[in-house]
Every structure is written in C-alpha cells, then in structure tokens.
Amino acid sequence: MLIREILKTAPAAAVMEVKGWVRTRRDAGGLSFIEINDGSCLGNLQIVAQSDMDNFETLIRKLTTGCAVRFTGKLAASPAKGQDVEFQAESVEVYGWSPAESYPLQKKRHSFEFLRNVPHLRPRTNSIGSVMRIRGRLAIAIGRFFEEQGFVQVHTPVISTSDCEGAGEMFSVTTPGPGSGGGESPCSTDFFGRPAGLTVSGQLEAEAYALALGRVYTFGPTFRAENSHTSRHLAEFWMVEPEMAFCDLDEDIDLAEKFLKFLIADVLDNCREDLELFTKFVDKDLRNRLETVTARAFARTTYGEAVRILAKSGKKFEYPISWGADFQAEHEKFLTEEVFGKPTVVTDYPASIKPFYMRLNDDGKTVAAMDVLFPAIGEIIGGSRREDRYAVLEKRMAERNIDPDAYRWYLDLRRYGSAPHAGFGMGFERLVQFVTGMANIRDVIPFPRTAGRA
Ligand code: 4AD
Ligand code: MG
After folding, report:
1. Domain-located, residue 358
2. Domain for residue 86, yes or no?
3. How many angstroms does the Cα of residue 232 sit away from the middle of ligand 2?
4. How far apart, in whole angstroms, are the C-alpha atoms of residue 192 and residue 120?
5. pTM > 0.85: yes or no
6. 234 lines ligand 1 (CB under 6 A)
7. Does residue 89 sit in helix, strand or coil?
C-alpha cells in the first residue's frame, strides 16, 4: 500500500507491509523512530522499532537518510501529535544502503541553488517532490479540460523546418545522411537534405489539424536557443497549444481565461497538502492569490491603452516605453501588480513586434494578438487570431523575407477552405511556477536546460 493510503487508514490488527526511503531516524527510550517516505505524498509514515526486534542492532540502528527499506508490521493509533497513525515494525529488509558520509541530501533544508547541482537526487526533497506532484496533476488536468471542451489532442513534430516565431532561436538538427538536395545548400548532404531544427512551437502544424478537426491541442516540449539568463526562461520547456477553427480573438481569450481558472481550481482542490508546503515555506499569500485568480474576471486592455497607462504612470522604468516597443518584465509587473492587481490580457500589439502569422487588424499597424500577463510571472500565454487571407499572409511573409516555398503547405491552408481561426500557447513551467510560487523556473522542471547547462 502507498503511504498516501496508509496515512488515511484506520489502525488494524492485520500485518501489512510498507516500502520507502528513510528520511530521518532517531533513538529514544530503547526505541528507534524512523520516518519513511515513498513519494506518493508529502507526509512521512513514522515507523516504531522495538529494541527486541530481529536485526535491531544489525540493520535498524544502521539506517541513515536515503536508505531504501521494506517493513512489515501493524498500523496503530499514534500517541504523538501531528499524526494519526504510526507503524509498529515487526521485520525489516534493507534494499539499498545510503552512505551518510557521501549522500548529498541531509536532514537539514538545502537551498534550491545547491539542489540544482544534484538534479538526479533533488526529487527526494519535500519541495521538489511537491512541485513534481503538482506538475503531474496539472498535466492530467490539461487533458481533462480539453476533453470536456471537445478538443482532439494532436502530436506535432519535434523536428521541424519552420521557425514559427521567426525569432531565429531554433537549435539546428544536423547529422550526416543521404541528403536529397541538389548540392547548393550546405545542408544538402545532411540527413534531411535541408536545414532542420528543434521546434519552437507546434502551432503551424496544429493549424493544419484545426482546419480539419476543428478544435485541437498539442502539448509537448519546445526548444529555444534564447540566451536569456532569467528566472522565467528555459532552452527546453513544455508548451500547451490549443487551436480552434471558426474562432475570433475574443473567443480565444475566453478559452484562455477559462483554461487557466480550471487548472488553478483543480490544484486548489486536489493538491492541498503539497500547496500547504509552499504556503508555509515559499509564499504565505499563495493560496489566497490562487483563489483570487479563480474568483475574479481577468482585466482586458489593448496594447495602445497599456502603453498610455505606463507612460502616464510617472514611474521610472529601466526601459522607457513608447508605442512600438515590446513590454519588458518591469512593464508586465507594473500592469498586473499595480494597475490592475490581477491577471491582465493585453491585445492588439504592433505588427512589427509580433510574428508573421498574426492577423493584421484593419488599422494596418496592429495585429489580433493577445498575451495573458500574470502577477509575479509576467507573460504566461501568448496567442492570436491567425492571418487567414492568402494575399495578406503572402505579403507579410515577403516583408520579412520568409521564403514562400518553405511555407507552401502553410499558405495552402489559406488556399483551400480558409477559415477564421485562433489559438494560443501556454508555457507549462510558468504555470507550475505561478501555482507553487517557486521563484526560479529551473526548479519546476525535472532536468532544466539553459544556456551553458544541459
Ligand atoms: O509567446 P510565445 O512565443 O508564443 C508562441 O510560441 C505561439 N506560437 C503560441 C501559439 O499561439 N500557439 O510562447 C508561448 C508561451 C509564452 O507565453 C511563455 O509562457 C512560454 O510559452 N515561453 C517560455 N517558457 C519558458 N522558457 C522560454 N524560453 C519560453 N518562451 C516562451
Ligand atoms: Mg510571446
């Protein structure tokens, strides 16, 4: 039985077994008290071992933090406070020792910086364990949300030849191969016969499927060779990207708001114990902040209006803001924390600072874009209505020197049965960050990849 279940079970006379890793052991009054954890929940099970037990001196008294063990015994009501039950050991088996002299994790709390040096061991700590249980829960909730809303999950490719965001941040994928190109390109002898890379977004491929299946979403790893050493950027991160046919920007925003509220409510309901840990040690106001997000409508404003608010605010920003400039973290923070005091959706950004695929508005200078900004996190979602007019898309691509031959298939979607459609991408790690209050994005993904570190 998992410890998660055992802790909710009533004391009983039947002999049972429990397996896990030793967190701590202390001796008192001829007894040994061993706290074990099996990862199924934050809580430990306390094992009580009597000194007359077999192997008390040979095994029990040698147990240290990290050992993998199996006990048989009985569940009894616990006299100690803070726990309802304890486990009275009858026999012990040690699967694996853990030499205390070299084991990097000790009983004391370690800093997150320290733990990043032992990414293979850090899931054994309370904090990273809780983050990962919440992360896993969120991934399931994402599937449930889209299932309820009638979306089909599609698996878009990881290896791609299109730079969706057009920011030149693709990692290249190259290896010698048969090639297929004519010889002019330096990649002609490469495996794919042309330049290929790791995808920065599954959106373009998702569009092809949305224009067939109506509502689709893709959820997978995406890659960006951005050299940003911030607490919000990874070189490999997971993105959730829904795409909907027959959908305008307002419906897209409605979906995004409903989606985020659903996910946060799910964690509030189902991850109580893990959330309490973060409320206690990371952010006292966490629960309250999450509840506020689910309870109140998001603020909505246009880019133009947001720029006016920022310019008039009298606040001194490191990066001065004027129409045409992209928001920096400080601007997003000010808007969500000082001006609106809640999640804020900003729409209609200048075309010049957004990718080629966003639908041009009638003013000819802004696009039907929307970013969802969160307090503390900044941008959590980026989305838009897509340019569905063949001629306009072709012109926008030409302006950016995008080779139309490479995107012929994407243009085809506008040639045959083009329809209004829209979607967005949510950075999964940014969501996990928001929900747990964790300050650094490197601590909410199992094995973080960043510039200089893989
Ligand atoms: O705003 P972005 O670049 O949008 C797209 O890629 C669109 N193609 C999505 C779509 O419309 N289908 O990225 C979407 C989100 C951001 O809002 C942010 O939360 C996250 O992905 N993100 C990152 N998360 C971690 N590390 C990075 N380097 C990230 N870059 C973007
Ligand atoms: Mg963006």
Report:
1. yes
2. yes
3. 12
4. 34
5. yes
6. yes
7. strand
